[in-house]
Amino acid sequence: MNSGNIPACAVSPEENSAVKPELAQQQDRPPEPHDQHAAPANCLNCNAGISGNYCHNCGQETRTHAPSFMEFAHEFVGHYVALEGRLWGTFTRLLFRPGALTNEYLAGRRKRYVEPLRLYLTLSILFFALLKFTNTEVINLDAKTPQPAAEVAQAVKQEAQGIRREIIANGTVKDKEGRDVMLQETVRSKSPRMADAIENFDKLPAERKGQALSDGFFRYGPYAMFALMPLFALYLKVLYLGSGRRYGEHLLFALHTSSFAFVMFAAIKLIPEDNFFTFVLLCWLVGYLPWAMRRVYGGSRSATALRWTVLMMAHGISLAIAITVAMGAGVATAH
User: Fold this and answer.
1) What's the pLDDT tens digit per position in 2-59?
2) Which of 49, 130, 142, 302 is most buried per CB count within 10 Å?
């Protein structure tokens, strides 16, 4: 008896078990070739329905054919050199119009320029890489001094070393209870690792000492410089109390002016000898910051000059401490 309740598309369990492996094989096959220059109906990245040259969901291009050499060249020029005009617009304002780039960013015109943090990090990496690969000598403890100054320097050095040995060997300090304690024992009790690092560093020859300090500068210098940016912004915040400026605005100004400094120092480094062009760059480097401060913050020339003087003194001290700490880290890791 033929039942009318059985659908015409029903299959037996044996047939169903034979169909499943076939479906699995179809899923494992690579997609059928299609016209690579034609836009598909769905995004190949997120499978969303698309219309146009870009997916509205993930932003990927809809035409994903293998690029030709000319397309590679166009992508390089368009995205890495021209950056749709952002790179050139950023550098013209950064280098030749002090403070203009900061004002543009604060005015909300941001998409047309390179992001401040990316700009700073890129120029910082390039600057320290330039110093590293041009074999810049950060410090030289074994320099040859012309006679007769070399004899005087050697005598002073020997006398200083003798005094240092005497202080380490015989020097005493007072502990909390007023008792005399050996200086060397005090340092070791407070920080044994530091004491060991100083002893190891002291045993190195002059050439190796200079190398350890240079390694510390190149390894930890970029981090130390970046750590100074919030401090630089804090100085500006204090100097411009009552201006209504937020801390983030001062930090933005610090990133832009420090990026300019990296470019100037790199340009001075690339000039083979001291000449008139070096003098011009140094003058522009000195005059850039007060000009930028007046353009961004306003104020009279005398007030700006006073703030600039205080800022340079505070930042100079902070910079010296940061470089010392970076080199000290090189001493701690020397062996």
Assistant:
1) 444 544 444 455 544 544 454 445 445 555 544 555 667 788 788 888 777 788 788 7
2) 130
Cβ distance 80 to 87 under 8 Å?
A: no
d(CA 160, CA 170): 15
Q: Using CA atoms, how far apart are residues 41 and 62, in angstroms rounded to an integer?
A: 9
Q: Is residue 217 part of a domain?
A: yes
Q: Which two three-digit tokens encode residue 160?
A: 């200083």
Residue 187 token pair: 């340092």
Which of 206, 225, 250 is the last residue in one of the domains?
A: 206
Q: Which domain covers residue 201, as residue numbers? A: 149-206
Q: Spell out the alpha helix ranges (H) of 134-170.
A: 149-170
Respond yes or no on whether the N-terminal peptide bond of residue 98 is cis (omega within 30° of 0).
no
* 170 plus 319 within the same structural domain: no
Nearest Cα neighbor of 292 from 41, 284, 181 is 284
| CB within 8 Å of 98: residues ≥ 6 apart | 260, 288, 289, 291, 292, 295
Q: Is the same domain home to 274 and 126?
A: yes
